[in-house]
Predict the 3D structure of the following.
Amino acid sequence: MTTILTSVSNVSIGVIGGSGLYSLDNLKVLGEYSPTTPWGKPSDNLIIAETNTGIKVAFLARHGRGHYLTPTEVPSRANIAALKHIGVKVILAFSAVGSLREEIAPRDFILPTQIIDRTKGVRPFTFYEDGIVGHVMFADPFSSDIADIIYDVQKDLNGPKFHRNKTLICMEGPQFSTRAESHMYRSWGADIINMSVLPEAKLAREAEIAYQMVCMSTDYDCWKETEEAVSVEAVIANLTGNADFARKLLGSVIPVLAEKLEKSQVKSVIDLQGSASNSLMTAPGKRNEETMKKIRYILPSA
Ligand SMILES: CSC[C@H]1O[C@H](OP(=O)(O)O)[C@H](O)[C@@H]1O
Ligand SMILES: Nc1ncnc2[nH]cnc12
């Protein structure tokens, strides 16, 4: 029987599972938590688990367990706010992506460094609105020190090929791209494509959470003459193997990351402290108090 937790705190690591990754293993599940944030309810209950050294981890299925939310419908503000409110300092986000490069084969893993935004402005994408203006830095959207940890850990796991320093383009979807778009994204320098990294990564930055996406290639999109254009069948065919390795990877990454967090050795976490509160432009006397109340759910000292 599922234990429903009524209050949760001191969870330092959040894992967002994408297509195909709807649960974790190797961790003791403490229960499920269903918070209501000022931005509504997250995609699904948070699964709260613990390592054998007592480090708490929250798992959230981005599209819900059973995959009922389109990329456009994912309530990213509620997801990020819920994770931040229970203490999360680092998010490891998983995503199934298409490859725009010959050398990134289906089933390879990628730790991206950059993002190009091709969403259509229809997803709520900021916490700072309604009388509060803030501009966080986003030149480097991911946490490269966390990518380093993941890259080092995977070397001992005998798993798939890992690529680094790649550019991820985020499209709106839910339909896949046309061939003309796929060629255009390649000409722009994009290496992989998904529908999920935005606004998730931007909101994590606004909430002062270090964020790294781990991408799992499932297809060659539709630019490659010798391959079938991407379809859900093709994606699913490669997802299961990817998700199995993602769980194995997490089993090894989480203890290493947890230890570094305990010892305050994660630079991106230290650097982000106070960064969003300091990015508020609106003069204190002009701030909408109702909006500030909401913002304090994620940034208590703002
Ligand atoms: C199932 S193919 C398209 C779908 O898969 C990816 O989801 P996620 O990033 O959550 O793994 C992609 O972004 C699309 O949402
Ligand atoms: N080709 C593709 N385009 C967008 N998102 C994807 N997720 C997996 N494959 C994809």
Remarks:
- The longest strand covers residues 90-99.
- The two ends are 39 Å apart (CA to CA).
- The chain has one domain: 10-244+259-295.
